[in-house]
């Protein structure tokens, strides 16, 4: 018992440890050699415990011991004999079950208020005890007890009619129990199922054929057992409910699950074996789906739903991953398409009395889930039946009608069903139809747009790799969104996150317009005054936009209303209070946006490091801090909020990226420019120091400061010509700007780069008679060509080319998004003049979100419940192998390429059918001729026999 508390990995370790010490061999020996039913049952249960969860090592151990040690013939003979014995028991008791259930049917059909029962309670109690004893006796294996019960059945039914307690009679009829020979079949079938769990193809084939002298086909025998226990040998399939009750419904469910496990993987041989079996197995499975199972369905609808669910899964398993239509046609031959449609509609409208909440983890199945599986079954069968294909289309020419049950059901199932195409190991393609997990409903539209537009293409032009890497983040977002749906307030805020972002931007623009127009506040004293005409006009505008708010489109109507309200408040309350109120509203709105952002992303659930590394979260936090600074420190801080436009517009982001993408090249070119400036500054300092004279405009000095400066400064009595200060009025406005190398560098850098002609524009214009005239010309031209023409244009060229590349990339990206399939990479022109258009292809065949939903399905589904394709994809995901995604391939294109061959084959098939019909007619005519010839021959023989006899008779008379 302690082992149940251990995690799954510990259970696997214990199973492997037991197998290493020979437990699997012990199980085989006990099953083969024991004669004791109790030991046999415990041996089966031990084998089930070893194989629980589909342990591959245990399965291989069983297979190796059975195949290599030649124990398989005796081993499977035990199960074969048990299956045969159980069928004999069922056939012996089926008449008893029929009588009991027909009695219940008689009670159910009659009006309870008009039943003419006597109130004899004593006889009723006596009858109850008598029946209970007889039913216990009937559970024994002897035929004598069955015959005795059959003889006494009629008088018992008469005395039962005198019983006044109807509920007591019903309780009596629910008493019978299955005999031990039938009861043991449930663990046996579970053991056989676990041998094939996780699609073990070797054991699936081994159960069908052991390559021994005597082979025991347990696959067919299990199907025969299902046929027998459902009463197919005694009557019509419409009366299934008479054979299925609470005592055997679990056994029937286990039988369906076992046969399903035989086929999944797929195991084509077992599929064909089941489909072609001479029993009524397929008919039984179809009948379980399409027929009502009463009276069990009235009391235990959950059991009936589970039965129908398993039956639909079994039919899907029989058709799984088959490229031919043989099995599907066999199934379609034995059912009417309208039956599936009716069952789906009934399951959609049906509601369990104790239906659990969506978030519960109970095992109880819902009617709509059953209907969904039947819809998927019908969807798969519709490929081979035009009638069923038409039946699955909701509504007629009038379109979708929500009040029509059929339309509502199909609309619901279609929206919760997806299909994809995968590539198998042998490079064949396969289409998969699957139910969309409920958690996928919580994927937000913002995330869809972000993933669709930002996913990067790899070297082979496919986006699958980057899309696959984003799966974990998207799945975590779905889980978080599902969690916050329980918090109504947080979900409401998070759902309107785009609205809060737009309001923040518009408020920031309005605040900055107010600051730009009216700052500094209060200088003119007329901020609160307005001309009467404009005053009345603002009131009228506010009233008109308030009335038109429900009529106008929401974004524009709200914007006009808010602008008129803000302008009116500015001139009513004053600039200071109005700006304070706008800043407060903007801060509050940004806090709401932060709550919505955290609610959508689940930021704090990802850990401290993820919060710090989330640049968007840091940006929005900085935005809120700037709002606080603008509100409490100074209004000029609001100007930083306008940078939000860069984040909102992709074009402006490209402008920024044009500088940052090739930032290293730009920085290195700028450093080269600094080196050249430094080089020209040294030359200017050494040879052209006197030419660096620049006109300056000094600020006027106030008279008081001038007097103070003259009074405080001691003017020397004698001063040299060079050092005597020049009076201000004698200053010519020129200064030397290259007396030091540092000042020379600053001048060349500042004036040389900003002037169109270089540093020569600000230097002294020399005379041609000066000895350094030629040097000045060379100096000016070199600076102009090297620094201005070459280096600066290199920087500008890098920026312009980068921007052009970004614009081209954006256009190419938009073109790719419009004309290329996200999954396979095929372009729109590949689907020209084909039966499937490009829009249909990306919507139904290769819908990127359907692939995401399938990944979620593989993540949330129990691995032991995987179908063959799901198991294959799960293995590929574990290996991080993306070859199961179709690249540059689509099944519709492959089928179109083979249309000519298919048409030729179809013509040949039609000719062959005509030939067969003609041969059949000729055979019939030949048969008639043969009969006529035989009749004529007999007549001739008769005549020939009579003729000579008459001649011989007349000879003696002569």
Low-confidence stretches: 1-8, 95-101, 104-175, 352-362, 726-730, 950-958
The rough form would be described as elongated
Strand order of the largest sheet: 1-2
Q: How would a textbook summarize the main sheet?
A: 2 strands, antiparallel
Oligomer: single chain
State Rg. 46 Å
Helix content: 55-70%
GO cellular component, one term: membrane
Subcellular location: Membrane
Membrane topology: Multi-pass membrane protein
Domain RyR/IP3R Homology associated: 182-288
Model description:
This protein is mostly helical and 958 residues long. Among the domains are: 8-69, no CATH class; 74-99 and 194-333; 421-486 and 826-893, no CATH class; 488-521 and 532-645, no CATH class. Helix content is 66%, strand content 2%. The chain contains 44 helices and four strands. The chain has a two-stranded antiparallel sheet. Mean pLDDT is 78; it is low at 1-8, 95-101, 104-175, 352-362, 726-730 and 950-958. It comes from Takifugu bimaculatus. Residues 912-939 form a coiled coil. This is Ion transport domain-containing protein.
């Amino acid at each position: 018992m302690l082992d149940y508390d251990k995690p799954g990995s510990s259970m696997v370790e214990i199973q492997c440890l037991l197998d290493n010490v020979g437990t699997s061999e012990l199980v085989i020996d006990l099953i083969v050699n024991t004669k004791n039913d109790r030991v046999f049952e415990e041996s089966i249960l031990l084998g089930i415990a070893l194989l629980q969860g589909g342990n591959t090592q245990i399965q291989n151990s069983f297979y190796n011991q059975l195949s290599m040690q030649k124990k398989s013939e005796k081993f499977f003979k035990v199960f074969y004999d048990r299956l045969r014995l159980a069928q004999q028991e069922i056939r012996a008791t089926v008449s008893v079950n029929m009588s009991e259930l027909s009695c219940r049917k008689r009670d159910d059909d009659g009006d309870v208020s008009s039943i003419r029962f006597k109130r004899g309670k004593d006889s009723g109690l006596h009858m109850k005890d008598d029946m209970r004893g007889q039913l216990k006796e009937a559970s024994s294996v002897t035929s004598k007890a069955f015959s005795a019960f059959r003889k006494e059945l009629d008088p018992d039914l008469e005395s039962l009619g005198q019983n006044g307690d109807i509920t007591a009679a019903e309780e009596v009829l629910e008493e019978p129990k299955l005999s031990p020979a039938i009861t043991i079949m449930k663990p046996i079938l579970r053991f056989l199922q676990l041998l094939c769990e996780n699609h073990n193809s070797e054991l699936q084939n081994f159960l069908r054929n052991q390559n021994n002298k005597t082979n025991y086909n347990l696959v067919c025998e299990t199907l025969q057992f299902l046929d027998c226990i459902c009463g197919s040998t005694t009557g019509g399939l419409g009366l299934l409910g008479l054979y299925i009750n609470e005592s055997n419904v679990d056994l029937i469910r286990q039988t369906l699950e076992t046969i399903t496990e035989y086929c999944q993987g797929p195991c084509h041989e077992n599929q064909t074996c089941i489909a072609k079996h001479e029993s009524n197995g397929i008919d039984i499975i179809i009948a379980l789906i399409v027929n009502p199972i009463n009276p069990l369905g009235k009391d235990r609808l959950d059991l009936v739903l589970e039965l129908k669910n398993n039956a639909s899964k079994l039919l899907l398993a029989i058709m799984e991953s088959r490229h031919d239509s043989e099995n599907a046609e066999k199934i379609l031959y034995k059912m009417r398409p309208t039956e599936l449609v009716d069952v789906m509609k009934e399951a959609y409208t049906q509601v369990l009395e104790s239906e659990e909440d969506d978030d519960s983890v109970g095992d109880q199945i819902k009617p709509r889930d059953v209907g969904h599986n039947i819809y998927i079954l019908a969807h798969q069968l519709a490929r081979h039946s035009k009638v069923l294909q038409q039946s699955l289309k909701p509504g007629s020419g009038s379109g979708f009608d929500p009040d029509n049950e059929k339309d509502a059901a199909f609309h619901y199932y279609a929206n919760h069903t997806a299909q994809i195409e995968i590539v198998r190991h042998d490079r064949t393609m396969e289409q998969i139809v699957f139910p969309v997990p409920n958690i996928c409903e919580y994927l937000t539209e913002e995330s869809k747009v972000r993933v669709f537009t930002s996913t990067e293409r790899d070297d082979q032009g496919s986006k699958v790799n980057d899309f696959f890497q984003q799966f974990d983040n998207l799945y975590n977002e779905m889980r978080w969104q599902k969690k916050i749906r329980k918090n109504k307030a947080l979900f409401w805020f998070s759902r309107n996150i785009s609205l809060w972002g737009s309001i923040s931007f518009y408020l920031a623009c309005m605040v900055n317009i107010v600051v730009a127009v009216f700052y500094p506040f209060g200088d003119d004293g007329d901020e609160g005054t307005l001309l009467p005409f404009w005053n009345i006009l603002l009131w009228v505008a506010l009233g008109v936009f308030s009335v038109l708010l429900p009529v106008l489109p929401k974004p524009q109507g709200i914007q006009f209303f808010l602008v008129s309200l803000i302008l009116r408040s500015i001139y009513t309350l004053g600039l200071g209070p109005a700006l304070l109120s706008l800043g407060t509203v903007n801060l509050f709105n940004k806090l709401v946006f932060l709550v919505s952002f955290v609610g959508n992303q689940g930021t704090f659930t990802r850990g401290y490091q993820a919060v710090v590394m989330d640049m968007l979260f840091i940006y929005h936090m900085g935005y809120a801090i700037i709002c606080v600074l603008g509100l409490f420190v100074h209004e000029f801080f609001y100007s930083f909020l306008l940078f939000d436009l860069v984040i909102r517009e992709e074009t402006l982001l490209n402008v920024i990226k044009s500088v940052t993408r090739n930032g290293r090249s730009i920085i290195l070119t700028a450093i080269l420019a600094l080196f050249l400036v430094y080089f020209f500054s040294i030359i200017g300092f050494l040879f052209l120091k006197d030419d660096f004279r620049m006109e300056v405009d000094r600020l006027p000095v106030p008279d008081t400061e001038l007097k103070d400066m003259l009074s405080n400064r001691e003017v020397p009595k004698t001063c040299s010509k060079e050092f005597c200060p020049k009076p201000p009025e004698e200053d010519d406005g020129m200064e030397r700007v290259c007396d030091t190398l540092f000042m020379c560098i600053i001048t060349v850098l500042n004036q040389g780069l900003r002037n169109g002609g270089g540093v020569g524009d600000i230097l002294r214009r020399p005379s041609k008679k000066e000895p350094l005239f030629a040097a000045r010309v060379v100096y000016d031209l070199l600076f102009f060509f090297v620094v201005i023409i070459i280096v600066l244009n290199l920087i500008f060229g890098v920026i312009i080319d980068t921007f052009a590349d970004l614009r081209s990339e954006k256009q190419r990206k938009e073109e790719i998004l419009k004309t290329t399939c996200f999954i396979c990479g095929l372009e729109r022109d590949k689907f020209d003049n084909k039966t499937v258009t490009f829009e249909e292809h990306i919507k139904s065949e290769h819908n990127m979100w359907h692939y995401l939903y399938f990944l979620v399905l593989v993540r949330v589904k129990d691995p032991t419940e995987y179908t063959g394709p799901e198991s294959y994809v799960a293995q590929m995901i574990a290996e991080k192998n993306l070859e199961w995604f179709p690249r540059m391939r689509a099944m519709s294109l492959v089928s179109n390429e083979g249309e000519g061959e298919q048409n030729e084959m179809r013509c040949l098939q039609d000719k062959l059918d005509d030939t067969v019909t003609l041969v059949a007619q000729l055979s019939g005519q030949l048969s008639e001729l043969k009969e006529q010839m035989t009749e004529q021959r007999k007549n001739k023989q008769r005549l020939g026999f009579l003729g000579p006899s008459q001649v011989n008779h007349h000879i003696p008379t002569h």
